[in-house]
Write a sequence for this structure.
């Protein structure tokens, strides 16, 4: 479904060139929960954001359902993005829109009709168990609730894949579980493909089917998660797992 | 005191009307054009939006030029333009032309500043949804910046009131002009005091109204 083929990306920061990604490849299959893991600065977030081209790689290919999306026009890219949901570490909800209005935003963008939007917003609220908060503003919600609103918003337009950028890193331990359960539920109920960038072992254990370990902008190794455990072969991988 | 005030009422009423005309014209122009320029100044500075250092430099520079003019001089300099647009160089409508120019420049910076405070994350979220630039501006940026935009507009109104006082120089009339003509030139201190007190009340009213709506809109 998502195939990343040897992408590289350089950033210019304070006059210094930083190699954020170098020759990174991975392949996410339909229905899978795929983890991009590693320490902060390892490139996992950049790699995740390359999938919807929020970060455009300098070279390589980003294939979505077999099509290279790097060659698409801005207009085509916008339409494609409407089919790729995304959630963020800091939720990125609109503070001056209610929960319902936040969830409605991607549907307005995709050009849905008003009645349809209304119905779909309620469905999404039910999926994340927040029906009672429909008219609340984000400021009145807990961190976990905000992230659930963000999840509802990201799946509103029936995305083919959900990108999750450190979705639990800003939450306390109890709430982390709440969000992980929510994502696992969506994966099972809707068969939603999820790509998740995280440095948290809990995310890997409870959620991921397969993970790619990043180190200094490169991929160190790719592993299947078996019974909530990964068994890295590389020296770095072993240290990484022990650390967590 | 009361007697002179009553005999003076028609003058005061006329001045108030002139001030309101200048405010109405100038504020509308500043909101529309200044708002648009402010939005672009912001978009041109953002990597992920319309980044264009060149346009930003040119338009931003122009805004700075207008803002560095002493208002009295700007007013005189704008005379030919006022004749072109308003058909005359005197009166409140003509005075609205330089007022608008100054207001557009001022408000554009206020809008730019408000937008800079909008969290980059929300813009990014909208982009990840495939929002068009238009949608990002109208459904995200302007909505998220609303409380601060209202305060900016309030600030604009008050600056306008004080700018419009200088309009007397080119026969624009208005409250400030009245205070100068009667209070200062004719030594009718009570008129000057009354007008100034009126202006103070007017400013207080504008500011509290602005604060009220800004707070009401702010859901953060």
């Amino acid at each position: 479904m998502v195939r990343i083929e040897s992408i590289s990306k350089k950033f210019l920061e304070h006059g210094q060139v930083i190699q954020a990604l170098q020759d990174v490849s991975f392949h996410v299959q339909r229905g899978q929960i795929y983890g991009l893991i590693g320490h902060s600065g390892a490139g996992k977030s950049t790699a995740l954001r390359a999938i919807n081209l929020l970060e455009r790689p300098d070279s390589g290919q980003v294939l979505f359902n077999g099509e290279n999306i790097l060659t698409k026009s801005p207009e085509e890219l916008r339409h494609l993005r409407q089919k790729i949901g995304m959630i963020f570490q800091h939720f990125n909800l609109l503070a001056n829109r209610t929960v319902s209005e936040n969830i409605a935003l991607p549907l307005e963008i995709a050009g849905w009709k008003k009645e349809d939007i209304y119905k779909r917003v309620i469905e999404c609220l039910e999926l994340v168990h927040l029906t009672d908060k429909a008219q609340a503003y984000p400021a009145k919600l807990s961190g976990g609730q905000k992230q659930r609103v963000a999840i509802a918003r990201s799946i509103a337009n029936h995305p083919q894949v959900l990108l999750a950028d450190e979705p639990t890193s800003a939450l306390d331990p109890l709430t982390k579980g709440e969000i992980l359960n929510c994502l696992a539920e969506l994966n099972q109920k809707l068969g939603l493909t999820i790509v998740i960038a995280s440095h948290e072992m809990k995310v890997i254990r409870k959620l991921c089917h397969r993970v790619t370990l990043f180190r200094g902008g490169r991929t160190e190794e790719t592993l299947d998660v078996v019974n909530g455990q990964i068994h890295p072969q590389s020296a770095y991988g072993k240290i990484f797992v022990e650390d967590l | 005191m009361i007697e002179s005030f009553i005999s003076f009422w028609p003058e005061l009423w006329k001045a108030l009307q002139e001030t309101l005309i200048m405010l109405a014209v100038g504020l509308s122009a500043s909101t529309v054009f200044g708002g648009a320029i402010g939005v672009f100044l912001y978009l041109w500075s953002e990597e992920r939006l319309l980044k264009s250092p060149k346009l930003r430099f040119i338009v931003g520079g122009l805004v700075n030029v207008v803002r560095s003019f002493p208002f009295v001089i700007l007013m005189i300099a704008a005379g030919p333009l006022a004749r072109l647009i308003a058909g005359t160089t005197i009166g409140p409508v003509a005075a609205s032309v330089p007022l608008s120019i100054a207001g557009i420049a001022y408000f554009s910076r206020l809008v730019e500043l408000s937008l800079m405070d909008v969290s980059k994350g929300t813009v990014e979220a909208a982009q990840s949804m495939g929002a068009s630039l238009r949608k990002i501006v109208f459904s995200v940026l302007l909505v998220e910046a609303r409380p601060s935009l209202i305060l900016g507009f309030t600030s604009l109104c008050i600056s306008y009131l004080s700018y419009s006082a200088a309009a007397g120089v080119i026969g624009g009339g208005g409250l400030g002009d009245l205070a100068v003509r009667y209070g200062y030139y004719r030594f009718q201190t009570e008129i000057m005091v009354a007008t100034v007190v009126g202006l103070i009340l007017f400013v207080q009213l504008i500011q509290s109204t602005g604060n009220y709506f800004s707070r009401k809109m702010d859901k953060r």
In short: Residues 205 and 227 of chain A are 8 Å apart (CA to CA). Chain A has one domain: 30-58+75-243. Chain A has a mean pLDDT of 91. Chain A touches chain B through 30 residues (CB under 8 Å).
